[in-house]
Amino acid sequence: MTLTNYDNGAVFEREIKADLIRKGWAAVRSAGSKGTIDVIAYHFNVALFIQAKKTGVFPPKERKKLVRLAQRHNAIPMLAEKRSVLFGKRRRGVIFYHLLTIDGEKGEQFEPTDHNA
Length: 117
Prior knowledge:
By secondary structure, the chain is an alpha+beta fold. The relative contact order is 0.17. The radius of gyration is 14 Å and the shape is globular. Helices cover 26% and strands 38% of the residues. The protein has one domain: Trna Endonuclease, Chain: A, domain 1, CATH 3.40.1350. The protein is built from two helices and six strands, in the order αβββαβββ. The N and C termini lie far apart (41 Å).
């Protein structure tokens, strides 16, 4: 059975949610919303508004919309993308998180770890 683009996106969003929970964050997926935020995560007093883009392609208009929404709610706007990384002789998909700058550009990489551990 071939997955649709929507199904592939939903699988990736679930991977992000599971990854964040493993790292000590509380995370929820905005299922079926097709909106600005795919995953919301909280850790102590920090909130992340995450847009999942498996290929990392995130149109400027959508990025700026996410940044504005995050600003209104004192959250950190982020892009999550998946890249193939070589581990030994095998490739594995790894989730990378990027902060979004005030003008919506992809900024530095961010690793949401459990800082209380």
